Amino acid sequence: MTQAAVAVEAFARDVTITRRATAGFWSDAAWRVRHDPTTIAALGVLAAMVVLALGADLLADNFFHWSFAKQDLLNSYRKPTLDDPAFWLGGDNIGRSQLVRLLYGARVSLFIGTFGMLVTLGLGLLIGITAGFFRGWWDDVVVWMVSTLRSIPTLYLLLIVGLLFRLDPLSLALFLGVLGWTGICNLARGQTFALRERDFVISARTVGATNARIMLRHILPNVLPLMIVLAAIDVAGIILAESAISYIGFGIQPPVPSWGNMLTNAASFLSKGPHLIYGPGVAITLTVLCLYLIGDGLRDALDPRLRGAK
Amino acid sequence: MGRFIARRLVQAVPTLFGIMLITFLITRLSPSDPVQLMVAGNFDITAEDKALLRHNLGLDDPLPVQFAHWLFDAARLNFGNSFYYHRPVVELIAERIPNTLQYTIPSLILALVVGAPLGFLAARRRGRPADHTIRLLSVVLHATPEFFVGLLFVLVLGVQLRWFPIGSMNTVGSDCLACPDRLLHLVGPVVIGALGGIAFYPRLMRTEVLEILGQDYVRTARSKGLREVAVLSVHVLRNALIPVVTIFGGILGIVLSASLIIEQIFNWPGLGRLLFEGAVNKDYPMVQAVVVAGSVLLLLSYILRDIAYALVDPRIKVR
Fold first, then answer.
1. CA nearest A227: which of A121, A133, A129, A123?
2. What is the nearest CA distance from A177 to chain B, expressed in angstroms?
3. Which of A51, A98, A240, B107 supports an S-S bond with A89, CB 3.0-4.6 Å?
4. Which of A46, A142, A164 would you mutate first to test chain B, the one with the most B CBs within 10 A?
C-alpha cells in the first residue's frame, strides 16, 4: 500500500468516526440535531408540555379529580401541599387548583403560539418572496407596510385590538399572526433578492418555467431552512405577546385560564397568595426558553456555517 | 449629511401616514360604537341626542372623509378631548411623556453598561465557562417575561423584604425629582426595563467583537507589537461599540412596549399607564392618540438611529 493510500484510508476512517457519509440536507440536519444534547433536552421538555396540555381533560378527571373551574371557597389560597395532587401548586383566591388551571393554560398558549406562527409564516413567506421576486411597486408597498407595522409598539396595537374586539384564542392568534409577519417577510425578501439572480433560477426561466413555479419549486425550498428557525422563535414571541396582553387584561378573558390572566389574578392577591405567581411565570419562561433553545439548535443544524457565530 | 437627514425625514412621511391609517381603521372597523361608549351610563339620552352627537363628531361621514378630518386635526396636534378627563388628549400625553422617559432613558443606559461588557467578556473567553454562562444568562433573560420578573421584584423586594417602595413615583407628600425617595421608586422600573437590553446586548456585542478580532487590522496591530490592552481598547472596542450604541433606537421599541407592563406593575403614571387607563375607561380618542404618540416616538428613534449610523460609519451613503 502506498503512503498516499494509507493517508486516504486514515482520512476516510477519520471522517466516518466523526461524521457519517452525507445523506442529503434534511437528513444531515436531523443527524446534527440528534447529537446536540441541549436541543434534544429542550425538545423533550416541550414535547412533555404538549402531551400534558393535550391530556389535560384526562388528567383532570382521572388523576387530579378536580376540573379547572371547580371552586372551594372555604379553602382559598391553599398553600402548595403534597397531600392532594390537585394542590401540588396550591389553590387560588376562590380555591381552584392552580396546577389543573396551568395545564389548561398551556393549551391556550401552545395553540395560540402554533396557530399564530402558521399565520406569520404563511403571510411572511407569501409577501416576502413575491416582493423580492417581482420588485417594482409591490416591493415598495411591502416595504411601506413593514416599516409601518414595525413603528407601532406591538403591545400598544394589541391593546387597541383587545379593547375593541372580543378575543377568543382563535381570533387573538389570528391578530398576532397578522401583526407579526414582518420579521419573516424581511428575511424571505432579502434571500429572494439574492436567489433570483442565481444560475438555477435563470436556467429554469430559460426552459420556460412560470413565475409561480420558480417561486414555489426553486426559491421556496432555498428560503425554507432559515424560516424554520425563525418559526420556532416566532412561536416563542407570540406566546410572550399573548401572555403579556392577557396579563394586561385585554387578551384571553377569565374564566378561560391562560398563563397571562392567571398572573393577573396572582398579582391582585400578591400578599394573600404569593405562591400563585410562580406557576404561570415559570411555565411561560420555560416554554419560551425551550423554543429559543430549539431555534438556536435548528439554526446550527440547518446552517453549520453559522455554528458558533452567534 | 444634511441631504441624508432630509431624505430620511421624507421617508418617514409615508410610514407616519401608515401609522395613522392603521390606528384609524382598527378603531373605526371595530364593532364598538364610540357614541355608545360616550353615553354609556347615561340612561336619559334619546335616540335623537345620539344622532346629533354622531353628527357633531362627524361619525356619519363616509370613512375617507372621516380619515381626512382626523389627519387634518392630527396635523395641528388636535386629537380631540378625552371622554373621561374632558381635557385635550394632547395635554394629557405631554404631561405623561417625561414620566416615561424618566425611567426608560436610565434603563437604556443601564442595559448598555451591563450588557456590552458582558458581551465583550464572552467574546474574549469564547468557548470557556464564562462564555457559556453569559450565553445561558442571556437566553434565560430573553425568555423571561417582564411582568413575571416585575411581579417577583414587587413580591420579594417590595412586599416581603420591604427594601423598595411598591408603586407610584413618590411616597405620599414628597414631591421632588432627584431626592432619595424618587430614586428608590425608580429602581424597580429602571431594572425591569433594562432586562430586555441586558439579554440582547451580550449577543450582539459578542458577535461583533469576534468578527473584529478576525480582521486584518487587529493582526497588524498585534504584529507591530502593540500591547493587548491597547489593541483591545483602541482597535476592537471602539469598532464593536458602533452597532451597539446605534441600536439604542431599536431597544427603545422594546422598552416602549414594555412600558405598558412596567407602569402597570409599578403603578407609574406614564404613557403606558395612560394608555391602560384609557383602555379601561373606553376612552377612545385617548387610546388612539397614545398609540400614535408611542409610534411617533419609536419612528423618531429609528430616524435618530439611522442618522447616528451614518455619522459614525462613513461606508453608509445616501441611498
1. A121
2. 16
3. A98
4. A164
3-state helix, strand, coil in chain A (%, to 5): 75, 0, 25
Cell numbers found for residue B120 = 465583550
Across chain B, mean pLDDT equals 82
> And the C-alpha cell for B190?
429602571
CB count in 10 Å sphere of residue A218 = 18
The span from the CA of A130 to the CA of B227, in Å, is: 52
pLDDT confidence bin for B175, thresholds 50/70/90: low
CB interface of B with A, residues 191-220, below 8 Å:
203, 206-207, 210
Region B127-146: what's the mean pLDDT?
87
* Distance, first Cα to last Cα, chain B: 12
B249 pLDDT above the threshold of 50 = yes
**Which residues lie across from A91 on neighbouring strands?**
A97
Q: Is A270 buried (19+), middle (13-18) or exposed (0-12) by CB count in 10 A?
A: middle
Q: Cβ distance A244 to B125 under 8 Å?
A: no
Q: By the CB < 8 Å criterion, does A244 face chain B?
A: yes
pLDDT of B172 strictly over 70: no
